[in-house]
Inverse folding.
């Protein structure tokens, strides 16, 4: 008997992946999308700098995940594997563009039109950082996004970017250094 | 450890990523070097900006999940239709499907 939607919500990522691998269960995949779409979209958005590209990249990353799910062996968490696909798509998408698109809608997207002054200052600070991020070298930017903005460990950052942990530390360090020069 | 080495550790120091021993090196060097103190202030400012950006709310498009699931369903139907057509029409059908990039 197929599980109800509420059962799916309580099911571990690994079990959902098995359901998809064994039975091509699209409801199980839809549940994985529900759980991970926010982190995938945020990471794409921060690397690409605008909402339209982030939406396209997130969609492409999930479609690739569904097609490639047979190759997922559970050595890393599904979230890390998913972020790796999202970063691949985002970095390739970005390198295909001749000129980076203006990231004017970054500031727009920050929520809280009715926020108090402190929230407004926080939003302005975040917008300032995002503007500067778009100037940072793409690999270093992706590393800073995953480590400093998404809060991944260095190991998870390395796995998400398909690089060694030492390289991840070096990319984060270089990205932070460039941001410091741009912003302070 | 020289000043350049300590400078490399400053943001990690601000972020609380260093070992106790590295913290002690950084703190000892800071006392001695006004330049490092200035750099520390810059890294502290950056850390505030990073923290603000990390907590910002970024809204996921409301239709993202629907777009993904619709596309996956559509791809599954197209694959099934292409397979059926290939079986019915044989090698010529498969060549046509390949040519039209249906599967």
């Amino acid at each position: 008997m197929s599980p109800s939607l509420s059962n799916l919500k309580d099911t571990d990522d690994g079990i959902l992946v098995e359901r998809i691998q064994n039975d091509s269960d699209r409801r199980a995949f839809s549940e994985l999308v529900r759980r991970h779409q926010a982190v995938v979209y945020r990471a794409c958005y921060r690397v690409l700098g605008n909402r339209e590209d982030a939406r396209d990249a997130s969609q492409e990353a999930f479609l690739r995940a569904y097609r490639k799910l047979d190759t997922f062996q559970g050595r890393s968490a599904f979230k890390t594997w998913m972020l790796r696909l999202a970063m691949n798509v985002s970095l390739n998408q970005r390198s295909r563009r001749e000129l980076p698109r203006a990231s004017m809608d970054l500031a727009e997207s920050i929520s809280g039109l009715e926020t108090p002054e402190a929230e407004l200052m926080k939003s302005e600070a975040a917008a300032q950082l995002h503007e500067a991020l778009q100037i940072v070298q793409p690999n270093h930017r992706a590393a800073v996004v995953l480590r400093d903005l998404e809060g991944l460990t260095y190991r998870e950052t390395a796995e998400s970017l398909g690089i060694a942990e030492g390289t991840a530390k070096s990319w984060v360090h270089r990205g932070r250094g460039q941001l410091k020069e741009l912003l302070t | 450890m020289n000043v350049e080495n300590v400078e490399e550790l400053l943001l990690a120091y601000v972020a609380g990523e260093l070992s106790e021993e590295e913290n002690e090196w950084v703190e000892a060097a800071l006392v001695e070097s006004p330049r490092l103190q200035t750099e520390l202030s810059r890294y502290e400012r950056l850390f505030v900006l990073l923290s603000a950006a990390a907590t910002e709310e970024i809204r996921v498009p409301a239709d993202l999940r629907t777009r993904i699931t619709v596309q996956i369903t559509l791809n599954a139907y197209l694959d099934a239709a292409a397979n059926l057509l290939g079986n019915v029409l044989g090698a010529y059908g498969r060549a046509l499907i390949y040519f039209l990039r249906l599967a």
Notes: Chain B has a mean pLDDT of 85. Residues 3-55 of chain B form one domain. Chain B is about 80% helix and 0% strand.
